[in-house]
Every structure is written in structure tokens, then in C-alpha cells.
Specification:
Blueprint lengths: L7 H7 L2 H32 L3 H29 L7 H25 L8 H37 L7 H26 L7 H37 L3 H26 L2
Helix pairs in contact: 1-8, 2-3, 2-4, 2-8, 3-5, 3-6, 3-7, 4-5, 4-8, 5-6, 6-7, 7-8
Length: 265
Amino acid sequence: MQRLSPLRPTARYLMRTEVHVFAFSIAASVLLSLFPFLNVMVSLCTYGFRWHGAYNTVYGAIGEYFGSDLGRILRNNLYLHFPARIEIFSVILLLFTANGIFEPLEVSLNRAWGVTKDRSYVKNQLLSFGLIMICGALALSSFMFTAMNTAYLQRLLGPGFPIPSWISVALFRLSSIPTISMALFLTYWLLPNCRVPALRVAKAAAVVGLALVALQFVAVLSWKWLMVKLAHDYGPFNDSCGIILFSFLAAMIVLAGAEWSARQP
């Protein structure tokens, strides 16, 4: 029981009403920004970098993260709405909706660190814009890393040798761990309206990054069963509910990491 005692304050923190409000707000923003984000990534890979391998990696990641049914729906809609150029409006929409993620995040991180005064709306939006650009670049680098290594294996094994899909998935999974941890570190370090010890939040970012990867595996394994259950309860809204549900759980893990890092001596 003594081993679990350091986790009790975090468990009590996660049971607070305002934490659930923050997490649901973050989850709703993820739902709003998901498709514009995928649209922007596909546009950049196709028309910005003109790299078909990175484009295929984005499509493969969609199927890996969202299961067969929802992944197919997202890929089909991306194909139907595939832009003829980089969509400026989609970029603006992504930035606007993604800003909604960092607003409740800043407030929750401020409360975790005992800060009662939040940034002004303008300052929050400016900082959010910078974090969105950095996190988008990190995500894009993960796609490009996977595409580069897949292309290298293709050259090494020969053009006629098929590369198993699980190899690309494994490469993407490996590259996503440091990407997620780095994005979390920057969020924990820069977003609170106070000075935050970098080493302390770096430890939390690494642990939370691994926890989010574990949550992704749980989502992939349970997605089919969960979609059947949600389709029975929510009908045509089952896909949206599934995204919100797992985004809420991910947000709760991120907020737990923030509380834990702020509480450490």
C-alpha cells in the first residue's frame, strides 16, 4: 500500500469536477481538429514535399490508430476531399480549432502548479500558435522518418521485394514515442503561466508519452468491440463518440502527468 501512496493525490486530482471539464474540452477540440489536421498533413506530403512515401505513411497511420472501420471512413473521405493544392483555409481552420486544446490545457496546468492568474486571450493564442506549429512539425517528422526508413529498406531489399505492412507500423510506432514525449515536454514546460523546472517536466513527459502509446494499443485492440457498442447506443454518432472517448482518456493521462510533475519535490 505504501507503494501506491504517491499515486493517491493524483487519483484524487483526477476525480475533481474541473479536471473532467478540462479533459472533455480538450477531447472536443481534438474531434474538431482531427480531419483538418489529416488534410493538412496529406497536402504537405503531396504538394509541399512531393513525397508519395510520406503520403502513404499518413494513410497507414490512420488505419493503425483508428481501426479498420473508422480508418476506412477517414481514408475514403480524405480521398474524396483530397485537395488539388495546399488548402490555406484548412490550415487556418486547424490552427483555430487546435487552439481550443491549449486553452483548457493552460488553465489546468496553471491550477496544477498553483497559479491562479491565466494569460490573456491574445497571449494564449500566440503561444498556442507556436506550440501548434512545433507539434505539427514533430508529427510531420515522424511520418517522414517512417517513409525514409521504408524507402531505405525497399532499396536494400530490391524494388520487387514487398515490404510487410507491420514493418512500417513498427517504424512509425518507434518514431512516435520520442515525438509524443517531446510535444508533451514543450507543453508542460512552456504552457503554464510560471517558471517550470525543465528536468521535472521532462521526466513526466517521458512517462506520459509511454502511457499514451499504451493507450493507443488498447484503442487498437478494443476499437472493433467498442464501435459495435457505441453504434448500438449512439447510432450514426458512434465514430465521433469513439474519438471523444479515447481523446478524453488521453487528456486525463496528460493532466495526471502535469499534476504529478508539479507535486514532485
